[in-house]
Amino acid sequence: MGITKSYSADELIYSKEETIIILKFIFQPVHHPLINELSISNTVRSFAQALLVEAVDASYAMGFIDILIKAIMPTKIRSTSISAILKKLGKNLQNIGSNMFPQAIYTN
Questions:
Q1: How many CB atoms lie within 10 A of CB 36?
Q2: Is 7 exposed, middle or buried (0-12, 13-18, 19+ CB in 10 A)?
Q3: Which backbone phi and psi does 51 adopt, to 5 degrees?
Q4: Which tens digit of pLDDT belongs to each residue from 1-46?
């Protein structure tokens, strides 16, 4: 499965700092020094947002967000950061959810 969605500047919901947190959450610690050196452009922000959406979408059946929050609770700084990011995603799904999760649209 590849990342096929990209987001325009007005669809981006995460700051540069949140983008770094997302990338560090997705990628192994060995890659964190490279992430720290990235120039966080809108293209990188779009990629990180798409990665997070894909991760949540692919793991939906397993209750991914609940598992994530429980798994990272021991690390207070990280849990606070990623919890806030996941909550921000949830709040914004109402506005952009139909574009992010087209398979989740209810049809009668």
A1: 10
A2: buried
A3: -60, -45
A4: 566 688 999 999 999 999 999 999 999 999 999 999 999 999 999 9
- Please give the model's pTM, rounded to 2 decimal places: 0.60
Phi-psi map region of 63: left, alpha, beta (phi>0 left; psi -120 to 50 alpha): left
∠ CA 59-65-67, rounded to 5°: 85
3-state helix, strand, coil in the chain (%, to 5): 75, 0, 25
Q: Say which amino acid occupies 46.
A: S
Q: Is 19:44 a contact under the CB 8 Å cutoff?
A: yes
